[in-house]
Design goal:
By secondary structure, this protein is mostly helical. It has a single domain, classed as Up-down Bundle (Growth Hormone, Chain: A). Helices cover 81% and strands 0% of the residues. Helix 2 runs antiparallel to helix 8, helix 7 runs antiparallel to helix 8 and helix 13 packs antiparallel against helix 19. Belongs to the major facilitator superfamily. Bcr/CmlA family. One of its GO terms (cellular component) is plasma membrane. This is Bcr/CflA family efflux transporter. It is found in: Cell membrane.
Length: 420
């Protein structure tokens, strides 16, 4: 398919959104993409309370996060290819029904075992939303326009971690932790309504059997350009998710802050996440994308070193030292996601599911690492940031020079309008 054809296909798919329109489609994609931060960050302030309520340790309570990410990853790897065979809309609706069931089960969980099981069901359903959201972006948009939409979507997506902990903290003032899961159920209802109004975006269906469809994951992974970029940018999530899962304990138990004050500190970090994609949009008009990603890895390393140096001095010092790393990791997300998508011209659902699945798997690794009984979790977060920044930064410089990696220069040649 030629570049002009891709552009026309993009415009054609936008017109097909009879009920949502282009702006409504972007909002829906953003909401679907936000299922992970919404399903985790909203109840972060309640983690210590839940440990006390069920009389279990931090490690056991963290299983509600870890198992969510593990099964979210598995579900993403399944639903992405299935959406190539059956279409985005039916897979999305089925997943959201599961998410709703899991959310309601969380509300009525009588013990930690049932809560963890309910979170698994919630994760499996939510994974369909994440896998399909990225696939829809590839279906509808191309070139510069896709990169612009990815920046908008990811900026809107990270508003949820900025708002979620504060909302969670306020919710805990008027109800128990169960009320937070009621809120997640309502989010699921809103997403389901939007998905029902969605017009199918997939135009070319996979004609193979279910097993052949799932086998396309292996085919995509054999693409060296895609796999190298996938591995490098997925590993970055180890450091990011390590902080997110440990943040409530660091601020509330380590720095002795209330859940409400903790939510404000977490919001500062989330504002950095929000600022990152917008910063990329500004920089991309003046600097090469390769240079921007190089700089982001350098900032990550420097930020991690600052966290290690200042250690447990003050909560605001820790927050400000880690903030540059947060901004940098989010600044590189739009170009890295677009670069990964550009490596694979077919099997969009499989590629999208691998992007989301690997990110969740690596995030789970980070959550497991900080779940150990470390005497100084702040130093661990800083050290992880330094190590991950070094490993991924070096890997990026080596892989990007390989001839099998399709470079940004080819993306820039596609003259597509910036998303409105």
């Amino acid at each position: 398919m030629g570049k002009s054809d891709m552009s026309e296909s993009s415009k054609s798919n936008e017109v097909k959104q009879k009920y949502l329109g282009n702006k409504g489609l972007i909002i829906l994609i953003s909401l679907l993409s936000a299922f992970v931060p919404l399903s985790t960050d909203l109840y972060l302030p309640a983690l210590p309370m839940m440990s006390e309520y069920f009389h279990v340790s931090q490690a056991v309570t963290n299983l509600t996060l870890i198992m969510f990410f593990v099964f979210f990853s598995i579900g993403t790897l399944v639903f992405g290819p299935l959406s190539d065979k059956y279409g985005r809309k039916p897979v999305l609706i089925m997943g959201l029904v599961f998410y709703l069931i899991g959310s309601v089960m969380c509300v009525f969980s009588a013990n930690m075992t049932l809560l963890i099981f309910s979170r698994i069901i919630q994760a499996v359903g939510g994974s369909a939303a994440s896998a399909v959201a990225t696939a829809i972006v590839k279906d509808v948009y191309s070139g510069k326009k896709r990169e612009s939409v990815l920046s908008i979507v990811q900026s809107m997506t990270v508003i949820s971690p900025a708002v979620a902990p504060v909302l969670g903290s306020w919710t805990l003032k008027v109800t128990s932790w169960r009320g937070i899961f009621v809120g997640l159920a309502l989010i699921g209802v809103a997403s389901l309504i939007g998905s029902v109004l969605l017009n199918e975006t997939l135009t070319s269906y996979n004609k193979g059997t279910v097993m052949q469809t799932l086998g396309r994951l292996g085919v995509v992974l054999k693409n060296p350009g895609f796999f190298s970029m996938l591995l490098i940018f997925s590993v970055v999530n180890i450091a990011c998710m390590a902080f997110i899962s440990a943040s409530s304990y660091i601020y509330q138990e380590g720095f002795k802050l209330t859940s409400e004050v903790y939510s404000y500190y977490f919001t500062l970090n989330a504002v950095g996440m929000l600022f990152g994609p917008f910063l990329y949009l500004k920089l991309a008009g003046h600097l090469k994308r390769e240079f921007i990603i190089d700089a982001c890895f350098i900032v990550m390393i420097a930020s991690g070193i600052l966290v290690c140096i200042f250690d447990n001095s003050k909560p605001w010092v820790f927050a400000l030292a880690l903030l540059p790393s947060t901004i940098a990791s989010c600044c590189m997300r739009p170009p890295s996601t677009n670069l990964m998508l550009e490596q694979q011209q077919k099997d969009t659902g499989s590629a999208s599911s691998l992007i989301g699945g690997f990110a969740m798997i690596m995030g789970s690794v980070g959550m497991v690492i900080v779940s150990f009984n470390w005497p100084n979790q702040v130093f661990v977060i800083g050290a992880l940031t330094v190590v991950i920044g070094l490993i991924c930064g070096i890997g990026w410089k080596l892989a990007y020079k390989k001839p099998y990696v399709r470079h940004f220069s080819e993306i820039d040649m596609e003259q597509c309008d910036v998303a409105e």
